[in-house]
Specification:
Shape: globular
Strand order of the largest sheet: 1-7-2-6
Distance between the termini: 34 Å
Helix content: 25-40%
Low-confidence stretches: none
Oligomer: single chain
Number of strands: 11
Length: 255
C-alpha cells in the first residue's frame, strides 16, 4: 500500500471519518479505535447476532476458504442471502439471523464491512449501525476516546459497483456514521473533522431516516430481491445496546 500523506489522515481532530478499506488503512494507524459502519448489512447483522449471544468472526471472502476458516474455529458459516437453507439458516440477512438458532460462534463473510474489520490491525475495531449507534458512542466516550489525545476513526464501509472493484459510497452508511457521530458529540467527544462534521449535520437534519434508507439504491436493491425485512431491521434506530468489539478475532459485546 502506498504511503498515506499527512493531509489525508485528519490528524488534528479527535473524531475522524472516511470511506472503505482505504479510508480505514489511512485513519486506523494512530487512532485509539476504528468504528466500522455497514448498515446494509454487515454491522446490522453483527448487532442482531451479538444481541442473541453469538460471537461473530469477520471474513473478507465468501468462497471455499470461508468454510475452512469456520471449521478451524469451531464456528458456523453464514452463506449468501439466497443460499440459506433450513440446514444452514445463517446468512448476511439480519432477518434470517433473527429467525435462526443462535450459534456460539458465526463466521460472517462480506466484501465490505467484514473485509474492513478483518483488515484493521493494532487497534480495537467496533461494529456500529443505526441499531446501536448511541450505545457505541457512549461506550467510546467512557473509554476516554474520541479526543485529540485519543482520536477515533469512523469508517463508512460503502458498497462495490456490480462486477467492479470500485467503491460506491452508500447513503445508508453515511447516515449510520452520522448517527454515531451525532451521539459522540452529545456525549462530549470531539473535535470533529470537517468530514465527520458534515455527516453529523446531515443525519441531524433528516426527519425520517427509515423512509430515506428504504428508498435509497441499496434499500431498493434488497427489497427487489425479497429482503425488505433486512432494511426494516437495519433502521430500528437505537434498538440495541450491544457494543460489538473485535476481541481475539470475534465481535463480542463489550457493553
Amino acid at each position: 500500500m502506498p504511503e498515506i500523506p499527512e493531509w489525508a489522515r485528519q490528524n488534528s481532530w479527535g473524531v475522524r471519518l472516511d470511506w472503505g478499506l482505504a479510508g480505514a488503512q489511512a485513519l486506523g494507524p494512530g487512532s485509539a479505535a476504528v468504528v466500522v459502519v455497514d448498515v446494509l448489512s454487515f454491522t446490522t447483522s453483527v448487532s442482531v447476532a451479538v444481541d442473541a449471544g453469538t460471537k461473530v468472526l469477520p471474513y473478507p471472502w465468501r468462497d471455499g476458504s470461508a468454510a475452512e476458516f469456520a471449521a478451524g474455529r469451531d464456528a458456523r458459516l453464514a452463506v449468501g442471502r439466497k443460499a440459506a437453507t433450513p440446514q444452514q439458516p445463517w446468512s448476511l440477512s439480519p432477518a434470517a439471523l433473527r429467525r435462526a438458532p443462535a450459534p456460539e460462534r458465526l463466521v460472517l463473510p462480506s466484501p465490505n464491512g467484514s473485509a474492513i474489520s478483518a483488515a484493521v490491525t493494532g487497534v480495537p475495531v467496533i461494529a456500529a449501525s443505526l441499531r446501536n449507534a448511541s450505545a457505541v458512542a457512549r461506550w467510546i466516550v467512557q473509554q476516554g476516546w474520541g479526543t485529540e489525545e485519543h482520536p477515533i476513526a469512523v469508517i463508512a464501509a460503502g458498497e462495490h459497483w456490480p462486477g467492479q472493484d470500485v467503491l460506491r459510497p452508500a447513503m445508508e452508511d453515511w447516515l449510520g456514521a452520522g448517527a454515531v457521530l451525532a451521539s459522540l458529540v452529545e456525549n462530549g467527544a470531539g473535535p470533529l473533522s470537517p468530514e465527520a462534521w458534515v455527516a453529523k449535520l446531515c443525519y441531524n437534519e433528516i426527519e425520517d431516516v427509515p423512509a430515506l434508507i428504504a428508498g435509497c439504491a441499496s434499500g431498493l436493491e434488497l427489497a427487489g430481491i425479497g429482503f425488505a425485512d433486512d432494511v426494516a431491521i437495519a433502521t430500528e434506530i437505537d434498538s440495541s445496546k450491544v457494543v460489538p468489539v473485535l476481541i481475539d478475532g470475534a465481535f463480542t459485546d463489550a457493553s
